[in-house]
Batch of 2 targets.
Target 1
Amino acid sequence: MGRFVFLDRDGTINDDPGYVYRVEDYALLAGVVDALVALRDGGYRFAIVTNQSGIGRGLYTLDDFWRYQNHLLADLRARGIEIEATYVCPHQLADACACRKPSPLHLFRARDELGADLAASWVIGDHVSDVELGVRAGARSILVRTGHGEEERLRLGSGAGHPVVDDLRAAARYVLSAETSR
């Protein structure tokens, strides 16, 4: 069983101007590569878990999503970072599907397909649904203030014991310090 960091994509790893799917709009957020390298060197593996309601709304296609996603994966791979899997929900909230975060379906798939030890893993993202995903799957969660994180922090209320940090770099420091204090 492996320790994973399950990453939200838009607003956590890359810039999120809204409905991200065009390769020409691709931009990693500051510090993302350093954060992922530190986590990788700390023994973590990676998967992306992302809601993409723009597909269900007809704003872009699943092929558009994968074109952007493959560009992101290739860029990270060129920097020494391997994302082992991408789990995507293409549905709208109104579709009431089983795969939309905060449903733990994708994390359970990662447990079964990748050997993820959910109790030793983290979910990092810029929405309350990312925090709830971790809770529902038995992992720990961190909310980042990038992307929609600042407004989502207000929805989180007191935080219910979940850390809220500035960005992925701060999240990596938190994860690694939590591991050394165990």
Target 2
Amino acid sequence: MDSVPKAKNDAKKKTDKKGDPLEIIRRAYDKAVENFNKGIGDEDLLPDEFRVSERYRRLQEVLMTSGCRGSEDPKIRGYLDPKPGMRFLDVGSGANLIVRDLGKWPSTYFGIDISPKLVDASREFAKRNNIKIGGVYIADAAKIPFEDGYFDICAAIGVLEYYDIPYIRRALKEISRVLKPRAKIVVDMPNLNHPEIMTMVEFEGYLGRPRHHLPTNDEFEAELKRSYFIDEIDHSRIMTSYFARSGR
């Protein structure tokens, strides 16, 4: 699983200051794995007044109906069109390999995530289930341990919204670097026009995943256009999906 010769070693564990957004998100997802192993769910972390509120009920309804597009969504898979021989990069992979069956795509799966515990869990899952993948590595989106033009397709779902514009700019440029010219990517951002978006932001804050800056659609699209050609933008859900191709 980890024998890919062109991949560098896992990034060293970050030692940034406690308030650094990357470190905050890393700790939050490490803690989520610990909680899951103890049988503690997301709702157990919510204040009672929020858990029984009408706004939280509306958010649950949205997520259960239209919801957020995960990498396994038919529209995303249809756009990326994975084929044998392709290398697929899952940026901010989280538990996607475990819960979204991405290891069953005909392309070869590679994941990166800043949470060592999620990376370990994904590796163990692949090994236990004899799933052949390219590997899962500890890395952040702005420092990807692969050479230029290594990947054919990419998804970055539920990742970049936690950070500010300078980081988003670096990450989008870095992702483009490791993609082949005109490689397809799907990336998303909170849809600020959705009526339940701020409830979702509040919900994630209780889970230790605060948003330090929520870019407007115009701000994010301006950054995306620096390195990509946008084929389609879908504003129909609580997260706006961008279907694009690398400009390299």
